[in-house]
Amino acid sequence: MNYNGKKFLRKFLPLVIERTAGDAEIWVADNNSLDGSVEVMHEEFPEVKLIENPYNGGFATGYNLALRQIEADYYVLLNSDIEVTENWINPVVELMEADPKIAACQPKILDFYNQSKFEYAGASGGFIDKYGYPFCRGRVFQSLEEDEGQYDQPTEVFWASGACMFVKADLFHKYGGLDDDFFAHMEEIDFCWRLKNEGYKIMCCPSSSVFHVGGGTLPKQSSRKTYLNFRNNFMLLYKNLPANRLIKTFIARLFLDGAAGIKFLMQGGFQDFIAVIDAHLGFYKKFAKLRKKRKALKQTPVSKVYQRNIAYAHYLLGKKKFSDLDPERFS
Fold it and tell me: Which class would CATH give 73-212?
């Protein structure tokens, strides 16, 4: 997927071509870029299949529009700002082929600029806590761990990163793909949760690895990103939580999000403070539509949820690493 990523196409697409030869077809879906990305594709990469989306519908709609046009057994959703490594495809596909219940999987995702560290958007597999806050093996909030092989075992996780996500194509379409209303951020968590509610597994395969720049479309410090993260997190909770968890989780989140907003304000992030308020308003505006979606979906108790508050564990108890968390608190 590409949006205004001409520099990333030139930097990383040649390696994708080289290191994917014989393993998969390569398609670039362009989200109506304005930076000349399409011209670069035509002039410099004519051998790569190109889909030109008619408008920028964000990560979610961009992939949905593109993948309806591609027939395959597996899709690999890959950001344009990722450097792939040698033999990055086969270990993941082999793991998924070994178990029909595995619907989606990610490789280990490391920081392009500091390649001994995990990268924020996925690290070595994603999880959520009981209130819906996401974190990863190798990344808790902003604390990024050094990769010392501590998370090199393949394991079931709660969500696979959309930065580099392998998914069985038939299941992608059967369960509705990515939710267009998310635009960008957490749409992959929502999709993985839907798959888990249907009894499927999400995995991480660390024997495959990639390097991610991150913030290629939206800067890492962006009030727009804050808005999308908070709004979309509420949306995925409402769509997927079992009925007996819904009200108490939302009540708790009102207080927790209020605390997050105050924290932004105290740190001088006035625009982020406003973004948290706008995110809640944005959720309420979509409530009628989300209610219809919830009714059409299955909600069941699912595994790999940290049954505590990750913010409390991190900020007050000082748990900086995934390995600091009590494994018995995951269910």
Answer: alpha beta
